[in-house]
Fold:
Amino acid sequence: MISEQQIQHVIDHKTKPVGALGQLEQIAFQICRAQDTLQPRLNTPHMIVFAGDHGLANAGVSAYPQAVTAQMVHNFVSGGAAINVFCRQHGLTLKVVDAGVATDFDPALDIIHHKVAKGTCNALEGPAMSTIQLEQCFRHGAAVVKDAHATGCNIIGFGEMGIGNTSAAALIEHYLLKIPLADCIGPGTGLDKPGLQKKLSLLQQVVEAHGTLRSAEAVLQHVGGFEIAMMTQAIIEAAARDMLVMIDGFIASAAALCACRIRPETRANLLFCHQSGEPGHLAMLQHLDARAILNLEMRLGEGSGCALAFPIIQSAVAFVNEMASFESAAVSGRTLD
Structure:
């Protein structure tokens, strides 16, 4: 096993002042440690977008109608979404998973068909999903990762699409981090001030209806989404297979938070790709002791932050593998031994 001291020695002895590559050095260190190597590799990168609808969306927590989820799935398939553009640009294989969209898709549509149901139940009226449905989500999430891993993939990114899912993520954050609900919510798809106040009022009603929820599994079942639950287990499965896991923004981080509660050792493999414009995201990152690679004030989802951060992750690996050391380049440097 490679020690942390060996990894730091390699990074510090590249032909540069110690720490001169800043956060890039931290990313490189994490990758070397996760892969247990001084010669890290990024093989067959995949981007998985989980799509699902939320019963709560029909109560008015979003600026967009629920039908947009299915419309965006078709947009992903036709290659017209932001995530398609960025995956093509940076060479990531994109897969879209129907976790629970409230539409019957043609079985021939080029997506991964893992629909649990046509959207979750309305969390104002009861649990978003049953225990059986949660178990289905976990099985499907693991299966998606197993299939990607079988192609030789050792780095995978996760994103989502689902009208209403910033509300689910805010509720997850509130329950698991004990943060006031008002500090967890944001505009999502673009709510104005009255819309944001309505969203807060509705989510407070959800909290009152469900009472105390302690475990990540209970929180996912009662207030989560099929796409978030599926992503949670996908994150766990990927880390268990020693894959690097790229986490997108607010909703994906809510899934990562659940994953780390269920299997704490998962955290070592997670690369948090961007800090969302959603107000609650920074608190999640701080709780997970994470610093986002990018902060571009985005709040799109779809895994867009993962695709944009991927070339920076590539650069972190490249400098470890290709940059000369003081010894190999015969450059006088400060000795750190």
The longest helix spans residues 131-150. The longest strand covers residues 93-100. The mean pLDDT is 95. Residues 46-319 form a domain with the Rossmann fold fold (CATH 3.40.50.10210).
